[in-house]
Amino acid sequence: MDYTPRGLGDGAPLSEQQLIGAPLHWPSEKALAERPTFGGRKANEGAEHLGLISVQALLEHLPRDRREARTVATLVPGEQATVVVEVRSISSRPVRRRGMRPLVEALVVDETGTLQATFFNQPWLVKKYPPGTRLVLHGSYEARNRFRVSSHAPTADEIGAGDEVGHYPAAEGLSSTQILAAIREHLGAARLAPDPLPGRLRARHRLPDLPSTLLAGHSGQLEPARQRLAFDELLYVQLDLLRRRARRAEAVKAPPLPAAQEGSRADPVDEWIEQQLPFELTGDQQRAVEVVLGDIARGHPMQRLLMGEVGSGKTVVALAAMLRAVANGYQAALMAPTETLANQHFATLQELMPGQTVPVALLTGSTPPARRRDLLGKLASGQLSLVVGTHALIEDDVLFERLAVVVVDEQHRFGVRQRTALDAKAAGPAGAAAPHVLHMTATPIPRTLALLGYGDLDVTELRELPQGRQPVATHLASGERDRARAYERIREELRGGRQAYVVCPLVEESQALAARAASAEYERLSADEFGDFKLALIHGQMASARKAEAMRSFKAGEVDVLVATTVIEVGVDVPNATVMLIENAERYGLSQLHQLRGRIGRGEHASVCICFGPEKSQRLKAFSTWNDGFKLAEVDLQLRGEGELTGMRQSGMAAFRFAVMPQDGELLERARLSAREILELDPELALAEHLPLREAVERARGSLLMATIPA
Length: 711
Ligand code: ADP
Ligand code: MG
Hints:
There is one protein chain. It is globular and about 80 Å long. The two termini are 45 Å apart. It is α/β, with parallel strands linked by helices. Residues 279-282, 285, 308, 310-316, 348, 442, 466, 573 line the site of adenosine-5'-diphosphate (ADP).
């Protein structure tokens, strides 16, 4: 097809300069919006499936780079890779559970090894790829030679032979070759593609313009083209997040909660920190308190994420904000995901403010009805200013008189709806439109993910641990000799007056099974290894009262060893506990292991964590090497690669066509920076040169992302 613009004098092709300066209503631009045809209903359905519904979409359909293909023997678990293989056998697996996606499994080989490849949702592949078919597969390699295929295409090439142009991801009914033919036919239209990025921005970041990007992408210079398109989509996401944040900051009002005016009297919060708090704040805590109190002094709602290492002391920061609300005549609420944690917070808050006369209430699912009624009355009338609780706080009949500060602890454990349910309660008769919200988490989010998923929150980190904390030494163990030594080591600690946790294997399938395993281990250890000591058991199936009693006796030192499931994962604070044994540690995720380990090393004594699991596990090796939760989160993301993002995608957060995380982290940083610069100049993207960008952001909004906090 000839895409040369017509009716412009001599009909000579335009220079690049002219093309890029072309106005949006460029006559031939319609060509880009046209739907390419592929001949045949099946092929057109395949094109629909791949989203190739316009010439522009077709031109943005980049090939996979063949030159990056790897041999099976060099694959590393957790990694994204392309391989060129031959099918040996292939079959579909019957689907047992309803709602589960159909699977096709193929045994594939290259000259260096064998893979068990899994294809999702494409039962027809069994017929399409009979034994002997050569394939290019892209996907992620997992342990034990398993390969999850994310895209695939047949190839006639010899195994290992690379070629200049890569292979286009195909679909049923539409082959890579057909796609290539269509792209050849329409490639001329690439020159007409209007570039959404302003020329100034492209120059500054040395980005090629869109027409040359598309041309390059289909003629062997794939990576620069992919990067430019990845930059675009990351930029759209960041622009969207930053604009939303700005809009919220302007439009929504919250009660300003300033410090007491100088001259009148000392500010009660400052006074509390200086005179009553039983310890000195760490530098990070001081900074966080300052930032948070600064936020809530303004008339727009705070939306801040406080990310802090386990034991870094986030609660004090939260309490400072809560007390500032009370000092201004408002109410504050802290919500935790479990009853154990809410109980713990309730106790901690009281310890942290010995001299304060502000009463705190506890509201959970186990609060007796009469007590609950009394509490609800006092919250509604404003008699009660501070409340700590679980989901019980967001029930319909819980009303506040003047709620101004909301703290959500371990926020990732709540759904979006639960997290924001408290906000609605702030709009009471005397209240303002929205409260100030502090989201807290001890699961550090790598910066890449934070920018994507929480880009519209302000983030503060607490990295420093309070003084006098001892680092935890972590040892990996396996086999009977290690086991005997581990128990001896624990007995040594116990004889020295310390306490221990034994964490039982995670049983994903059922709480009941986990409980049974923990009970059996408790019996065995009581009778045998720790016969001379006092043991207690805690698991999720016990009644709240029994759980609370187990925790109390352990905290009081009446019990030496606590045999537990992961119910102790968060919030449990017993400084005298110095040793933890984790069974089947390979079943836990890295962040969960780190949370568990955070239960020890909380006092003045050196602590040790012993993990039983396979010696070769990369995850466990990383766990024993690093004590820093932020570092572990980065490692985790690397080991899991896109899997993590797939998880995010399922939870509706982000899906990219070109960007690959975490590899494109640096590109993301640049996109964030550019988004900032653009909005500083033109907050509404109203300038003429930004209109195409604004349209692109709006178009991308539906497909790219959804953020965690509603606008
Ligand atoms: P996390 O950040 O894990 O929620 P917490 O707020 O529960 O941590 O604090 C852990 C423990 O450390 C608590 O017992 C708390 O009282 C104590 N703590 C907090 N800050 C300090 C500090 N600056 N110095 C000493 N101890 C502190
Ligand atoms: Mg905490």
